[in-house]
Design goal:
Helix content: 40-55%
Distance between the termini: 10 Å
Structural class: alpha/beta
CATH class: Alpha Beta
Radius of gyration: 15 Å
Strand content: 5-15%
CATH architecture: 3-Layer(aba) Sandwich
Shape: globular
Number of helices: 9
Largest sheet: 5 strands, parallel
Number of domains: 1
CATH topology: Rossmann fold
Length: 174
C-alpha cells in the first residue's frame, strides 16, 4: 500500500459468518493497521449485547445505534469490521467510504447458514418474520452497491481470504 492509502481505512462488509472480524484481525496484522469491530463498539455504547438490544428494543433500534456509532467513527489507518446491517444506513456507508476502501466478503447462503448455525442467537438485525434467505437476498444488493472490492470466500480459509484481500488492494487501488 502506498502512502496515500496508508491513512485510509479498510472497511469490511458482509453477512454474519463471512469472516469480517476474524479476517479483519488478520488483515490488520498483515497490513500494519489498527483493528475496530463495530459490533463491539455498539455493545460498549449500549451496555448490552446485540441480541439484548434486538430482544428488548427491536431490530430497528439496533440499526439506529449502529448508524450513530458508525457516524461517530473518525479514524485513519484501521481495518473496520462492520456489523452485517451497516449497509442499511446510506449516511453511515458514505461516511465510511469517504476515507475507506469497502471490501465485501462474499460467501454463499449455504456457507452463511453453516457458519452461524442458530442465527437467532447472533443478534442479527432482521424483521421478526424475515427468513435468513430473504435477509441474504436483501443485503446482497446493498453489499454489492457499496463495495469497492468484492472477495469471494467460498472454499477459502481465513488466511487465504486475508491474502486475497491484500492482493486485490495492491492491484486494484488507484
Amino acid at each position: 500500500m502506498d502512502n496515500q492509502t496508508n491513512t485510509r481505512n479498510l472497511v469490511l462488509i458482509g453477512m454474519p459468518g463471512s469472516g469480517k472480524s476474524t479476517v479483519g484481525v488478520l488483515l490488520a496484522k498483515r497490513l500494519g493497521l489498527g483493528f475496530i469491530d463495530t459490533d463491539l463498539l455498539i455493545q460498549e455504547n449500549a451496555g448490552r449485547t446485540l441480541q439484548e438490544i434486538v430482544d428488548q428494543d427491536g431490530y430497528k433500534a439496533l440499526r439506529r445505534i449502529e448508524e450513530q456509532v458508525l457516524l461517530k467513527l473518525n479514524v485513519q489507518h484501521k481495518v473496520i469490521s462492520t456489523g452485517g446491517s451497516a449497509v442499511y444506513s446510506a449516511r453511515a456507508m458514505e461516511h465510511l467510504k469517504a476515507n475507506g476502501t469497502v471490501v465485501f466478503l462474499d460467501i454463499p447462503l449455504d456457507l452463511v447458514m453453516e457458519r452461524i448455525g442458530d442465527h437467532s442467537m447472533r443478534g442479527i438485525s432482521r424483521r421478526p418474520d424475515q427468513s435468513l434467505e430473504a435477509l441474504f437476498e436483501e443485503r446482497f444488493a446493498l453489499y454489492f452497491r457499496y463495495a469497492d472490492l468484492i472477495v469471494k470466500g467460498a472454499g477459502l480459509g481465513q488466511d487465504e481470504v486475508c491474502e486475497a484481500v491484500a492482493e486485490r488492494l495492491c492491484s486494484d487501488q488507484p
